[in-house]
Amino acid sequence: MKEVKVGLIGLGFMGSTHFRIYKDLPNVSIVALADVDPVKLTGDVSKVIGNIGGGDNSIPLDMTGIATYTDAFEMIANTDADIIDICVPTPFHSQYLLAALKAGKNVFCEKPLCRNLEQLAEIRNAVKAANGRFFNTGMCVRAWPEYDTAKNIIDSGAVGEVKSALFRRLSPSVDGNAWQNWFMNEEMSGGAALDLHLHDTDFVCHMFGRPQAVSSFGVRGVTSDNGIDHIMTAYDFGNGKLITAEGGWCAPGNVPFEMSFQIVCEKATVKLDGAGFHVYWNDGKIETPDTGDASLPTGWHRELKYFTDCVRDNATPDRWQTPDSIFDSLTVVMAEIESATTKKTVEVKYV
Ligand SMILES: NC(=O)c1ccc[n+]([C@@H]2O[C@H](COP(=O)([O-])OP(=O)(O)OC[C@H]3O[C@@H](n4cnc5c(N)ncnc54)[C@H](O)[C@@H]3O)[C@@H](O)[C@H]2O)c1
Q1: What's the pLDDT score for residue 286?
Q2: Which residues pair with 306 in a beta bridge?
Q3: Nearest residue CA, atom 38 of ligand 1?
Q4: Distances (CA, A) of 16 to 70, 72, 183, 318
Q5: CA-to-CA distance for 225 and 191, rounded, in angstroms?
């Protein structure tokens, strides 16, 4: 079987998570790595901190056979990698993404794809121009076992029509976690609204399509400089259903991470929370759905396995996302930020 070669940019929380996943995937090898921090290039990730999952960062990563660069543009120009995987702070995604596509590489880019709508327009054009090259993003919740299974259950029609849905993502504060504390700098991260809550915005769009308008409330500057640190949104699909999501990183560091949902349907309620993932049927029966391959326990494992398989098989990746669907959900979250800022309902203007 053909070996798929990866060049990774950024070895912080997400880069080190991807690194370990690639190392465990058969017929996938990391051939190049770039990071502005030379310490990371030695495999030392002892200072890396994440808010959910990840690995044991006290154990150095094995860099054997990996060409290392402090200049990622140099890496893109020189590597024979099939895939460039971008795991740097959000404002730096687009520059590497554009360079990698121009160099004829397949690209996997972490979310949020970019920091603003101007960068999004540039990316959209570059992705459309990159014929024959594959592109996926780290919108991992679409591939997350419980979320993916919930969508499949609802799409099957077994539980009837959705009546209301609530999605929630509450992280402990990420103050102090990242390179130059960039999450706390609104200009860089876009606050919890863009960085964290986007996951649920994206899943709402994945599950229900394009909302016409959004009504959001938020609070700024609780933990970050002036970012929206907690946001709540009602999505208007013009069909009378109440679809809401909220996300924030206001809580102190000792508060556990929560990602949860409750989707009330005609015949049953599909729910993920501290009690686990269950379907609660109206007649009282409670089921625990099978979420699939336990050897791929997270959306991160599933999305990277799928993307490397697609590149190996020269098959367009379309299982969980298309570029247009990712551009749409980013447009929706930008409308949410506008709504929370102006305190008005905002109509979403799709391109
Ligand atoms: N999909 C998810 O669940 C998920 C989770 C966390 C973070 N993320 C996203 O992943 C991206 C990275 O976040 P993180 O938590 O790993 O951040 P981090 O601060 O932990 O890591 C960033 C890494 O990039 C390096 N870096 C900074 N500027 C660079 C540049 N110009 N060129 C090359 N390297 C550079 C830093 O030295 C650091 O090693 C962000 O876009 C973030 O939103 C996604």
Answers
A1: 98
A2: none
A3: 12
A4: 16, 16, 17, 26
A5: 9
| Cis peptide, bond prior to residue 252, ω within 30 of zero | no
Rounded CA-CA distance 87/14 in Å is 6
The pTM score is 0.97
Residues 166 and 117 in one domain: no
User: Which domain covers residue 125, as residue numbers?
Assistant: 4-138
Question: What pLDDT is recorded for position 51?
Answer: 73
60: left (phi over 0), alpha (psi -120 to 50) or beta: beta
Cα→Cα distances 281→20, 106, 149, 276, Å: 39, 44, 16, 15
Structure confidence at residue 49 (pLDDT) = 86
* C-alpha of residue 50 to centroid of ligand 1, in Å: 10
Nearest CA to ligand 1 atom 5: 14
Residue 202 and residue 182 share a domain: yes
**Pocket of ligand 1, candidates 110, 136, 144, 196: which has the most ligand atoms within 8 Å of its Cβ, to mutate?**
110
Q: How confident is the model at residue 323, as a pLDDT? A: 95
Domain count, the chain: 2
**Contact, 161 vs 155, CB < 8 A?**
no
Listed as ranges, residues in the chain with pLDDT below 50 are none
Residue 91: CB atoms within 10 A of its CB come to 18
Q: Which residues line ligand 1 (CB under 6 A)?
A: 9-15, 34-37, 40, 48, 72, 87-90, 92, 110-111, 138, 140, 178-179, 182, 195
pLDDT tens sequence across 158-187 = 999 999 999 999 999 999 999 999 999 999
Q: Does one domain contain both 169 and 63?
A: no
323 belongs to a structural domain? no
Nearest-angstrom CA–CA distance, 245 and 165: 8
Q: Would you say residue 232 lies in a domain?
A: yes
Please report the pLDDT score of residue 141 as a whole number.
98
User: Is 115 part of a structural domain of the chain?
Assistant: yes
Query: Residue 1's pLDDT is what?
Result: 86
If asked whether residues 123 and 134 sit together in one domain, one would say: yes
Identity of residue 198: L
Determine the distance from the C-alpha atom of residue 300 to the mean position of all C-alpha atoms in its chain, rounded to a whole number.
Answer: 9
